[in-house]
Amino acid sequence: MKKRYASIWFPYLTTDWQSKRQPALRDTPFVFAHPVHGRMLISAASAAAEKHAVVQGMVVADAKAFLPSLEVLDERLGLQEKLLKAIGLWCIRFTPIVALDEPDGLILDISGCAHLWGGEKKYLQHIISRFAQYGYQARMAIADSIGAAWAVTRYGKSNSIVESNTQLEALLNLPPMALRLEVPIVERMYRLGLKKIKSFAGMPRSVLRRRFGDHTVLRLAQAIGSEEEFILPLKPIAPYEERLPCLEPINTDKGIEIAIEKLLEALCGRLANEGKGIREASLIGHRLDGKVEQISIGTSRSTAHIPHLFKLFALKISQIEPALGIELFILQAHKVEDAEANQEILWDTRTGLEDSNLTELLDRLKNRDTACEIFRYFPDQHYWPERSMRQVSSIIEKAGFDWPLDRPRPTRLLARPERIHVTAPIPDYPPMVFQYKGVRHPIRKADGPERIEREWWIDPGEHRDYYAVEDDQGQRYWLYRSGHYGDKESDEWFIHGFFA
């Protein structure tokens, strides 16, 4: 089979990405810049900026001198590499062999693929149109060699197809830099008047080697196709998935249990070897009638303990309707994390959250009843009470710091403060009576005020003056007045929590 390659070039990769995130920049000249020896140099320019002769490598001050409206953004380190790799993995839908052509291109081995789209022309048009839909400007060319495809993409007619065995003809009128040569060699060629590839393509190879080095001869041979060139394809991470086709359709609970056991043995064996465990997983069953049945589980900590995972799936087998039978089972681990290695010990002294028996009990409770929700919270570095804690997803995560104990805080904090009616004397005095949900609470004891300023860098608003109060029944509450006394109506009071 004849080898065919495609080269894709993204001349505005990072700026197109920024335009997608900020549509207002789409028609605005803007650049990314980074400091070099005390000067800001342009690392990437948008298409609108290039129309005003602003290009990569230019000093920002010089560009602003003739284009004052130029928007300058700080360069995001590593962004271009991440984008290119993500796009390369996405392109595997067009061919299984995709390689990075850093810093702004891809190389695709499309041998035997284009006919699936109705030929190379439709194949090329489809890929370019898909990139356009996602907001990326791209150029593409197809040829027998990587070098020819690369050259035509960047220096030839946009979105071209070079017919087989015509690489040399396609290269003749292109400049020397189309052969991916070093800048000093290209400059030497220009000084000698060799401004087109046709000016030196017919020279004896010994002359080219003597004047311009082995690399020039190699690049020319690779572009023409007389020298083979190899690429390093991207390898996507294999998903944590196991499949079990059935010789006979399965329509009983016992058959489903056997399938789950076999799938867990295979998947957990792989995870254990990699030191990982399951946090979220699904069992998918494809029925004979074409419908799909699915059940999902989640764990409080990563685990590859087969008996425990089997119990979680067993709790939900009743939700599967096999009908005429299931012919294919698929077990997918959607979320996988590093797990502690299992070690045989004479006795286990771990208690509390470190006890695996506790975490397995929590998993069974959550997976038995979908209405059961178990959350764990850590203190967060915020003064504002609603933000002073954060929910954590793993039961083994460690807090960075302890809960503050220097100020009284309620055992139960309302997710949203509720308005109350309060009778209070002059400013900074605690309330005497408050009414909450139609019940009147005379206050016997009070402590405060404790002023908590709003975090102005997050949202604007008034400060709060908090009081810890106790009513005549011995119940304790956390109340606050919003803003300064007299600035608003006198009933601008709220209840925010309850003490034990």
From TrEMBL:
Assigned keywords, A-Z: DNA damage
Pfam families assigned: IMS
Domain UmuC: 16-153
Domain of life (superkingdom): Bacteria
InterPro entries per record: DNA/RNA_pol_sf, Rev_trsase/Diguanyl_cyclase, SulA_CellDiv_inhibitor, UmuC
Family according to the record: Belongs to the DNA polymerase type-Y family.
Protein name in UniProt: DNA polymerase Y family protein
Protein species of origin: Sphingobacterium hotanense
